[in-house]
Amino acid sequence: MVIGVIIADFELLVGESLKGRRRVINSMKGKLKKFNVGVLDISGSYAKEGSLGIVFPAHNSKQAHQIADTIEEFLISHFPEVNFYFDREII
Q1: Tally of domains in the chain
Q2: Given a cut of 90, is residue 14 above it in pLDDT?
Q3: What is the CATH number for 85?
């Protein structure tokens, strides 16, 4: 068994408040529930940027990369108002 970790750094293209960023993050967290992953907001204090830590179990490295690809594609397609930068690690 392996653990997949994705750090999803993002930049909001619209909205300039911490409240707006929190709304987008909560929406992301809610939609990611269907993947059965752990999600943590690790953002700083700048309103237009944020980061999510996403962790998930997998049976092997190949499956972990497939799950990570699916999650990354899902976020990009469901949140067009956000520019994403992904970093992943398989442990």
Answers
A1: 1
A2: no
A3: 3.30.70.1120
Interaxial angle between packed helices 18-32 and 61-78, expressed in degrees from 0 to 180 and rounded to the nearest 10: 130
Over 90: is that where the pLDDT of 16 sits? no
Helix, strand, coil percentages in the chain from 3-state DSSP, rounded to 5 = 40, 35, 25
The answer to whether residues 7 and 55 touch, using CB atoms and an 8 Å cutoff, is no
- Band (pLDDT 50/70/90 cuts) for residue 20 is confident
Domain coverage including residue 55 = 2-90
Q: How far apart are CA 81 and CA 38, in angstroms?
A: 23
C-beta separation of 20 from 57 below 8 A: no
